[in-house]
Specification:
Radius of gyration: 22 Å
Shape: elongated
Strand order of the largest sheet: 5-4-1-8-13-10-14
Number of helices: 8
Structural class: alpha/beta
Low-confidence stretches: none
Mean pLDDT: 94
Length: 381
């Protein structure tokens, strides 16, 4: 196996419990987004577009659908014989087996995968964030500054800073302090959870962390502070594009809605940096003679016989005659039957809103209504 300059380790095992019903049967990176995509598509596409052709995907929570979706990696041009995508779930050894104990533990338990490719650098990222990023620019920054670790960060509103790992930097851009989710943050420079390590530094840090019984085996809580304490060179790399962690129902709905309009905040149609997916090949969508579609994304295989306004219909969604879908997201194969009304809601995969039923409300002071996957909402007729 040839030596690689840089490989990626993509953490995709999170449950995403704050997404509630949407992640009861699938891990957060596998949740449908934007009509034809799944959340993990964005990180995988970033790797492919950045010419990083060797990606280990670390899975854990309800992995079957995610494994099936990723397949050989061909959908993202990540099926090279010398590299490509490898699925890395937890595994048993002669001393037993257990789930990954933290982000750092997940990488530690796959050091043999890293060693097999013998890279100079290792990119570590999450599979549940939405953004476009050229990792080559970050790698160039890392090499030019002779860094041991480079942390990508963005500037967030001060009122949100407590939700992130926060870093302080000197005049040369090196990190001087790092605090994970501090209640009293000292800056609003927030880590994106995207790291580039010099490989030998990563391996040494993970081995030391694994031997520490008091560690939580987490990059933000343990690895970064340990490297700072050891006097390692930690560089901050600023990112100023769109980035979102759709960690709640409200943010998931809001970010989907941000895809709409002539100049959306997150533009899926931007040329030169395609977001690839393994969505099924389906016929074009169909709008019937009485169908009305206004400011909406309607994916292939969908059928609209009723009214759809300011909404996203994922692959094979169905809206019957006299049905209304407004300010809502229908996930793959969701059905809204005749006379039903869906407003400010998310309808899960393979779910059915029966004839005459009402889901959600136009009252913006109320929470977004959510119907999980494979649920039937009974109608009133």
């Amino acid at each position: 196996m040839g030596k690689k300059e840089c490989i990626a380790m993509l953490l995709a095992g999170g449950q995403g419990s704050r997404l509630g019903a949407l992640t009861r049967s699938i891990a957060k990176p596998g949740v449908s987004f934007g009509g034809k995509f799944r959340i993990i598509d964005f990180s995988l596409s970033n790797c492919a577009n950045s010419e990083i052709d060797t990606v280990g995907v670390l899975t854990q929570y309800r992995p079957y659908q995610l494994h099936n979706y990723i397949g050989s990696g061909a959908a993202w041009n990540l099926d090279a014989r010398d590299g490509g995508i490898s699925i890395l779930p937890p595994y048993a050894t002669e001393s037993g087996g257990s789930w990954y104990a933290g982000t750092a533990d997940a990488i530690y338990r796959n050091l043999d995968y890293i060693a097999a490719h013998n890279p100079e650098y290792v990119l570590i990222l999450s599979g549940d964030h939405l953004y476009r990023m050229d990792y080559r620019k970050m790698l160039e920054d890392h090499i030019a500054h002779d860094a041991d670790l480079t942390v990508s960060y963005l500037t967030v509103p001060w009122e949100e800073a407590h939700r992130f790992g926060i870093l302080l930097t000197d005049e040369n851009g090196y990190i001087t302090e790092f605090a994970e989710k501090s209640p009293n943050p000292r800056s609003n420079q927030a880590s994106m959870g995207v790291y580039i390590f010099s490989a030998h530094v990563l391996i040494e840090a993970l081995v030391a962390d694994a031997a520490n019984p008091e560690s939580e085996h987490d990059f933000g809580k343990n690895i970064i502070p340990m490297l700072l304490a050891d006097g390692r060179r930690l560089l901050a790399h600023h990112f100023d594009g769109f980035w979102k962690d759709v960690g709640t129902i409200a943010s998931f709905h809001e970010t989907n809605m941000q895809l709409l309009g002539h100049e959306p905040e997150f533009d899926l149609y931007k040329p030169g940096w395609p977001i690839m997916s393994n969505s099924p090949t389906r016929p074009p969508h169909y709008v019937g003679p009485n169908g009305q579609v206004e400011n909406a994304i309607v994916a292939n295989g969908s059928m609209v016989l009723g009214t759809v306004k300011h909404s996203i219909l994922s692959t094979d969604a169905y809206v019957a005659e006299d049905a209304e879908v407004i300010d809502s997201v229908l996930l793959p194969r969701a059905r809204v039957e005749a006379g039903a009304r869906v407003v400010r809601a998310i309808i899960g995969e393979d779910s059915v809103v029966q004839e005459g039923a009402v889901v959600g409300t136009g009252d913006a002071t109320k929470d977004i209504a959510v119907v999980g996957n494979m649920v039937v909402i009974e109608g009133s007729r």
